[in-house]
Amino acid sequence: MLQGQDKPNVVLIIADDLNTRIGPYMDIDHHTPNLDRLAREGVRFTRAYAQYPICGPSRASLMSGLYPETNGVLGNSTQLGSYKKKTPDLSDHPSMAGFFRQQGYYTARVSKIFHMGVPGGIERGGAGGDDPDSWDYAYNVMGPETLGPGQLELLSPDNHHYGGNFSRMVIADSMKHTQTDYLAASQAIAVLENRTGDIAEGATNLVREKPDAPFFLAVGFVRPHVPFIAPRSSFQSYPEEEVVLPPGKVDKNVPDQALRQQNDNKFGMNEWQKRQVISGYMASVRFMDRQVGRILDALDRLEVREETIVVFLSDHGYNLGEHDSWSKISLWEGSARVPLILSVPGRKYQKNYGKKSRQITELIDLYPTLTDLTGYAGEVPTILQGKSLVRHLTEKEPGLTDQLAYTVSYQGNAASIRTERWRYTRWGDEVQAHNEELYDHKNDPEEYDNLADDAGYRDILEKMRKTFNVKQQDVQDARFWE
User: Can you tell me the distance from the alpha carbon of 468 to that of 111, in angstroms, rounded to the nearest whole number?
Assistant: First the structure.
């Protein structure tokens, strides 16, 4: 540990709109070498799920450790205070970072952790819907985004709303230092330099706050969120003509509500534009991965990697043509599932380095996990709704629990649960004609065959309905202030 420290540091890295189409989760050579490197130095959770497949609610959920229906954040908001302003009864409930700040950690935020508009808020350098109580230091990147040094190309003819449409910009490699995520990585490295550098002997100036405290550094990267912006060298690895589109298969009995993100309903792209979207997405991921590498390199160079927990995740997944659905919001596996990698130093954790856990996991599990890893398990708020994942980091072959993942969308008017084998989705509060989906992930991992109307699965459907109702009621009962 650094002199005066008895607790590990934490570096939390959050990508924006990133699905699991990355090296640690798929066999994609040379796509995300730095995330591959982190996965080799930790445990990757292969079935981790967001609680809401949109930025604002998901981030408020994972940072508060509460389901969106519990903390009240069911849409994007740029109101400072996040869930504390939305639900005043939670004004004293610390965020994950706020908890560490209360324990004496130096907490710092770089760029988007709570909700910020991309583009929009980032271009203005705004704080978005941040929680100021969480941080000793907060840095808002003013990135160029749509104002950048390249030609902005609209790829979705039927959707012109930047931030919700598809567009791309190829910039010269010489201009990479102007980009939002490059700027964020540079500032994160500056924070690391500040917290780990030796204070000059006899210094009387105010060098740094909490000089001997461990740090909790949260770094938000905005890629691969639209617009897809990356240097030309990143795009060169993914030529449009080599992009393979998913089959776009949709079962005839899928509820209409589940199809709102289909191309013909929202984007109007032709086949070439679809290829350009996937190419741009992959290029943006590649550029983001390089910024992760810069932070990992800095931790090594500063010789603090062995006393620093590193976590990488995304706020939610992202569909790229599966079911001919695109972007987020949907409740398919592709938009609910997220990458989650935890790298914890120490001999008892290193024995599991490079392993993967198939445990069903939720992003709200991160709050109790990090507090457990740092020795605060007995001091966390009792209202946290996640569960610690530490046993999956320490035990060589931990048994899987029957935990399920719960995800809501459309302001809580639709919800889905994911168990070891099944996904059940309901569009609306009550069972109605043609408003359910049931998928068997053992035989249908791509969720092509909706079994909700199949008489042969009636018993399974009834069981999943009951499990869904119990989970939904438990979440609603947790609104303790009502």
Answer: 36
Question: Parallel, antiparallel, or unpaired for β 361-362 and 356-357?
Answer: unpaired
Supply the DSSP symbol for 399.
Answer: P
Handedness of CA 156, 55, 178, 125 (dihedral sign): positive
Tokens of 38: 């982190």
* CA–CA dist 139, 11 (Å, integer): 15
Residue located via tokens 């090594």: 300
Return all residues near 455 (Cβ < 8 A) that are at least 6 apart.
Answer: none
Query: What is the chain's pLDDT, residue by residue, as a tens digit (482 residues)?
Result: 555 578 999 999 999 999 999 999 998 878 999 999 999 999 999 999 999 999 999 999 999 999 999 999 999 999 999 999 999 999 999 999 999 999 999 999 999 999 999 998 999 999 999 999 999 999 999 999 999 999 999 999 999 999 999 999 999 999 999 999 999 999 999 999 999 998 888 887 778 899 899 999 999 999 999 999 999 999 999 999 999 999 888 888 999 999 999 999 999 999 999 999 999 999 999 999 999 999 999 999 999 999 999 999 999 999 999 999 999 999 999 999 999 999 999 999 999 999 999 999 999 999 999 999 999 999 999 999 999 999 999 988 788 888 999 999 999 999 999 999 999 999 999 999 999 999 999 999 999 999 999 999 999 999 999 999 999 999 988 875 44
Q: How far apart are CA 33 and CA 350, in angstroms?
A: 20
- The C-alpha atoms of residue 410 and residue 56 are separated, in whole angstroms, by 13
Q: Which of 219, 226, 220 is nearest to 284 (CA)?
A: 226
- Contact assessment for residue 9 and residue 320, using Cβ atoms and an 8 Å cutoff: no
Question: What type of residue is 317?
Answer: G
CA distance 325 to 258: 9
Please say whether the beta carbons of 335 and 349 come within 8 A.
Answer: no
Distance CA 418, CA 396 (A): 25
> How far apart (Å, rounded) are the C-alpha atoms in residues 195 and 183?
19
